[in-house]
Amino acid sequence: MRHLVDTLEKNRTLSREEFSTLLTTDDKETEEHLFSRARDTATKNFGRDIYLRGLIEFSNYCKQNCLYCGLRRDNRDLERYRLSKEEILECCKEGHRLGFRTFVLQSGEDDYYTKEKMAEIIRAIRAEYSDCAITVSVGEKDEDTYRTYYEAGANRFLLRHETVSPEHYRKLHPLGMEIETRKECLYRLKNIGFQTGSGIMVGSPFQTIDNIIDDLYFLAELQPEMIGIGPYLPSKDTPFRDHDAGSVDLTLRLIAVFRLMHPDALIPATTALATIHPTGREKGILAGANVVMPNLSPLRVREKYQLYDNKACTKDEAAHCRGCLQRRLEAIGYTISEQRGDHVSRAGH
Ligand code: SAH
Ligand code: SF4
User: Fold this and answer.
1) Which of the chain's ends, N or C, has fewer CB atoms near its CB within 10 Å?
2) Best mutation site among 66, 169, 201 for ligand 1, i.e. most ligand atoms within 8 A of its Cβ?
């Protein structure tokens, strides 16, 4: 069955049946071959460098009600917080001192941060840190708003599509949220010029292998610059509290499959993966990921940004995480890069 991996590497795609076999086979040798080819592809493009992104979770208010997420509007058991522009700039200052050259501004969908307020925050970071990339991850917005962020100096945007199947999407979201809106947002972002990230949760409630294969084809069409995939993890404060977490193994296989389909993409070994397995980040890197996203948020708010339960590293200072990650990555033969790590198209490789 190793030939499926070789065909995927060569053609950057497979048939539905072939994808299904590769994602579900019990054959460990094929799995090892998949990880090994994905790892080699990442090394060929990025060497042994892993890019760092500093995550700043600046608000846990959210007007949306995604059924899987602990920040959802209807969760009354969560103490909400917002960071001021000054507090966000403090996080950047600490991050910059520690060698971070990308800041990721992430939040729930919080209308307190109007278009103008966000632009002001982005402009302030841009003015002080001209050598850094600014990534925004604040959900669905209109064209004008995205464009304002871009013109203020943001370079990248993360918006996972979660699942491309309309039926599955409706099972994960309340009435009124549609995959079509999400897709429009993604094409809008690409069109404006953002390096755009999308992706899925692996093992989200009701997800089938067929759904995942649709996601593989959708991302082949979208050609995102970044691909975020992590296991679904239950949050006690959501209607999905009793659903099982996603599988580590399937998450790793998908990282590897995405790496072979998108050799140049920036693929993080996610916090969710680190949460579900003590060496999840390392496993992600060894399956072809090339980005890590430690937390730069102030310690006092960390526990409140609870997308899911037991999130890894919520009690660790950024400096501690930086050191810990460096040791862990060096132990598997990788190093942390202090470059911005922009997406560079190496088409033709
Ligand atoms: N509000 C923004 C950004 C914050 S949520 C947005 O929705 O895009 C960021 C990501 O966290 C989501 O895209 C989702 O894929 C992930 N997430 C939310 N709840 C999760 C859970 N229970 N398990 C794993 N990942 C989750
Ligand atoms: Fe809000 Fe994002 Fe969570 Fe949905 S996934 S409830 S939009 S924070």
Assistant:
1) C
2) 201
Percent of the chain past pLDDT 90, that is, above it, reads 97
> Can you state the percent helix, strand and coil of the chain, rounding each to 5?
45, 15, 40
pLDDT in tens, 209-234: 999 999 999 999 999 999 999 999 99
Minimum-distance ligand 1 atom for the alpha carbon of 158: 8
Host domain of residue 108: 2-344
User: What are the strands, taking DSSP E only, across the chain?
Assistant: 49-52, 54-59, 102-107, 133-137, 156-158, 195-202, 226-231, 291-292, 335-337
Helix (H, G, I), strand (E, B) or coil at 276: helix
Residue 349 maps to a domain: no
Ligand 1 closest atom vs CA 233: 23
Predicted pLDDT at 349: 44
**Which atom of ligand 2 is nearest the CA belonging to 307?**
3
CA 254 – ligand 2 centroid, Å? 23
In this predicted structure, what is the pLDDT of residue 346?
73
Q: Is residue 165 situated within a structural domain?
A: yes
The answer to whether 36 and 324 are in contact (CB under 8 A) is no
Residue at 144 is within a domain: yes
> Going by CA atoms, what residue is nearest to atom 11 of ligand 1?
307
- What residue ranges line ligand 1, CB within 6 angstroms? 68-69, 106, 108-109, 137, 139, 159-160, 162, 201, 230, 232-233, 235, 272, 307-308
From CA 288, how far away is CA 297, in angstroms rounded? 27
Q: What is the CATH number of the domain that holds 253?
A: 3.20.20.70
